[in-house]
Fold each of these.
Amino acid sequence: MHSPLEIARNYVDVGIHKSNLSAFKMVLLGIFAGMFIGFAGIASTTASSTIAVSSVAKLVGACVFPAGMAMVLIAGSELFTGNTLIIIAVLEKKVTIRKMLKNWFFVFTGNFIGAAFVAFFVVYGGTPELFDGQLANSIVAAGAARCNLSFMESFIRGILCNILVCIAVWMAFASKDVPGKLITSFWPIMVFVVCGFEHSVADMYFGTAALLTSVKYGIAAEGLNVFHFLFSNILPVTLGNIVGGAGIVGFGYWLIYLHQTPYTHNSVEEEQEEIDIAEEY
């Protein structure tokens, strides 16, 4: 198991690696991550859609959704929310702000494409017709609920969400094997879903799926429209995710573990291990 100090140092190398990817690879890897989160979104909605007790339904969906993060971490992809931790490499002066913002932009774009791709094929593949159409109502309700939040509510929920998402990434980095990464990342993701916090990439799927389902199946929902989806949900949630990930977890852990911390030279084996981790992520 890696210590928090080792994780912080390793993430400097990871940030360098992520920032030096080509724009094409950033978008393509972002598409895969958006797809993985989209798959987790439809799975969690499907699993909970016929459960009458709302708290139980929420818990069941929350226990399914971490599958998305598992795919992101293990299969290899680029997720905007986790990439807010590139701020650690910026604060260490190993990556420029411009390169970090470039990564965020192209990965965010790829995430949106991937999430929308899954939403489109879920809806037009007839998945909402499951359970005599009850799933369609659940999909629309999930999107409408997000669109009807106020700007400040979405922003604050975005902050809380990405604190937990980045902690999930941080904890996964502590483990040296796949089972450990899966177990450690599961809990923070489950917590953010069951608490109703907002994840920008997940909302890309939920909002798109709700809009498409509403049109195809004629299910009206107050506040569910493109304007509210983009400006009452995606925009404030994204800003909140940046604050939670870069401003609180990234900056906070950099301040604790790397700022004015003497760097101890690693052995050849430790340096190779750090290189392997950077290449993996």
Amino acid sequence: MKSLRRYAAWLLGLVFFLSGMAKLSDPVGTGLIFESYLKFFHITFLMSLAKALGFVLSLCETVVGIALLTGVWRRVVAWITSVMTVFFTLISLALLIFNPDMDCGCFGQLVHLTHTQTFVKNIVLLLLCAASFLPPDKTTGAKVRRYVSFALASAMALAFGVVFLNINPLTDNMDYKASTNLIEEGKAPQDSDYKTLTLLDEYGADCSYLLLEGPVAVVSVYDPQKLSARKLSRLASFAQDALNAGYTPVLLSSDALQVPGLETYYADRRVLLSLNRTNGGYTYIDDGYIVCKKSHYPSYEEMEQEQSLAAEELCVKLSSHRTIAIQLIGLAFAAVLLLL
């Protein structure tokens, strides 16, 4: 019986941990999900705090998962986990009843569930809570190494989330992920997975064709008023570097933005967030093919090196680097949680 309780708690902790880490890996995307919830519950006065609230909730979910996996403070963690699971279940029930056009965001932007799937998932988690915590565990204390493991893993999770606050996630499942082909609307072949990305000039004319010809260095700014002074000052020199390297520099903004030597084009804010999570981030597009995204502006030498490889080859190469990074992060957490 004791083993069954521990296995159930471990499985519950794993779900919490993976769910929290998925959201911490993409704080900007999690902020978008939180915005949808704030609109659904008509508490839009908190909209400016959506990203921060999403980050805090994701971190709490991850820490609770780590506590369940390491088995520390079992009574307190049991209460916290049960309250959170009931809360999530009630929210998923509201989504199931009212069926709003939004994603639950249980696993951030990595996995998309229907409202029915979300509700069923939370019912299963409630059953796991019952199996883990009923009757209440009378065991007190845990081995010191478990508390050390908990502290280290929690610190790693916090550092992980902070790092990804201002860079693109390692895994991107949005519409304009790397390897996506852009094509003019109405010209996509049937049964294709092509996407359209519309950009307008200051007069409202469609200039999307700019992204379909040759190497294009796109800088997307979804919150112009929040663009850092450092990036703003770097933009003009980066545009010149891009021109010298044979790129067409394109500045995409959700609102008015003036940069010397660069013409500004406009696109929807959510589209720009899908294109690049970084406010003022760089996206390399070659003949309408999204090759890569970066949170920093590459140097002239880096851009020349990008063009030395075929677009698909460079995309696959960078994708393999991201996969290795994900595996190393997973191994690091496994070592702390299971081997310490």
